[in-house]
Design a protein that fits this description.
two-stranded antiparallel sheet
Length: 412
């Protein structure tokens, strides 16, 4: 089934970045979810004798293992730990359907990443997001609520809008920042290949910096640095003079920017307006009353492992009526997605995600696809190590649409 203009990357990529929310009975569903779900319905009710789109082996195994992990943890939680079962558990299968539909949409793509990024609507969405992130700290609370609330679905939105640090667009700030990192990696490689201008990766980097996620900044900068080195360093020769000049120019830009930010009044005002510098300083400061940064994560990881040990094979489903302030079985924020999946989906769920990422890395290396995709998946592994939320309804269609785009390149 060929996707028409409604399901083209020109619309879907902007929707992965800026998607409004539609609220039904106080439940917010993003327009991206609606588009993906509509695509699945069209497949199921299509006329004629067309077959259902191809499901590659690695994705089929992932879906089966992940579903088995969910059902095992659900049954174990209900029988052994008194975890209630209700209509909320159906959300898991909704997200599986979102994953499959988004992957099919991605594989329908016939354009290269550079061609997608050149589209005027894609560029407009990226630049609009960059401008929003840069001016957000200076916007009033009333302005944010009036004009931006439609893009920030979920509970506690009013509290988020009081903070000068822009929340993630419809999802957790760190998860959203990683979504931008994915686009940064592929766009930076497209720039190095001289397929697009530097404007798009620069706008994405500025947006990530403005969102102030330490993890996303580290993953994005490191991935781009590796891509840059791979591009400028020939395999069997010294670094050409033109590349040495480029390195020197970039180094000079970094030094000048660092001087302005740290030694001028204008730079100090920027630091006060954005949370980026303060968050890095707080992470490495030693005089804290409570654990922060790596110390906090190590503490949460230890608690998560204790939770895993209650049922290391089957896992225990999440109890929606308990919080991490309650008993150990109600702990749900280990600050590591690998541990969280193991907690709530057991060994089957953990293996499912490991196989999915490993399969995509191997497929890209085997078919000699560009390095950026391999770095993207390694960044995903790092993201899952230090943060989480990969099963959020806002993230699922984005991630599997991206995998579908990658798989369409591999099939070519």
């Amino acid at each position: 089934m060929k996707a028409n203009k409604l399901f083209s990357p020109a619309l879907l990529v902007p929707l992965t970045l800026l998607t409004p929310y539609v609220f039904v009975a106080q439940y917010g569903i993003s327009v991206l979810e609606l588009v993906v779900f509509s695509f699945v319905l069209l497949i199921l009710i299509r006329p004629g004798k067309q077959t259902i789109p191809h499901i590659p082996t690695f994705l089929f195994i992932f879906l089966c293992l992940y579903a088995a992990g969910f059902l095992g943890a659900l049954i174990n939680g209900a029988l052994a730990w008194g975890v209630p079962v209700g209509y909320w558990n159906m959300g898991f299968f909704y997200k599986l359907l979102l994953a499959l539909g988004a992957f099919w949409l991605g594989t329908n793509n016939t354009r290269s990443i550079a061609e997608i990024l050149k589209n005027r609507w894609v560029k407009f969405a990226i630049l609009a997001l960059c401008i929003l992130a840069l001016v957000y700290p200076f916007l009033s609370f009333d302005f944010r609520m009036k004009y931006l609330s439609v893009f920030f679905g979920g509970e506690g939105i009013e509290e988020n809008f009081h903070n000068p640090r822009m929340p993630g667009v419809g999802i957790n700030n760190v998860i959203y920042s990683f979504m931008l990192v994915c686009f940064l990696i592929v766009s930076f490689q497209a720039f190095l290949n001289k397929n697009i201008s530097l404007l798009i990766p620069t706008a994405l980097l500025l947006t990530i910096l403005s969102l102030s996620s330490k993890l996303a900044i580290g993953l994005g900068v490191l991935s781009c640095f590796i891509l840059f080195l791979a591009k400028i360093v020939p395999r069997h020769a010294a670094i050409p003079y033109r590349n040495i000049k480029l390195l020197a120019g970039l180094g000079l830009i970094v030094l000048v920017a660092g001087f302005i930010l740290t030694q001028t009044e204008f730079g100090l005002k920027i630091q006060q307006s954005y949370a980026t510098v303060q968050r890095f300083e707080a992470a490495f400061a030693e005089d804290h009353d409570e654990p922060v940064g790596f110390e906090l994560r190590f503490l949460r990881w230890a608690q998560g492992i204790e939770r895993v040990q209650l049922a290391p094979l089957l896992g225990i489903a999440k109890d929606p009526f308990l919080s991490q302030e309650g008993p150990l079985v109600g702990f749900y924020k280990p600050h590591s997605e690998w541990i969280r999946i193991w907690m709530f989906y057991g060994m089957a769920g953990l293996v499912a995600w490991l196989l999915l990422v490993t399969a995509m890395i191997i497929l890209n290396m085997k078919n000699k696809i560009q390095l950026e995709w391999v770095l993207l998946y390694f960044s995903f592994v790092g993201f899952m190590l230090y943060d989480g939320g990969v099963d959020a309804p806002r993230f699922v269609p984005f991630w599997f649409y991206l995998i579908g785009l990658n798989y369409s390149l591999i099939r070519k």
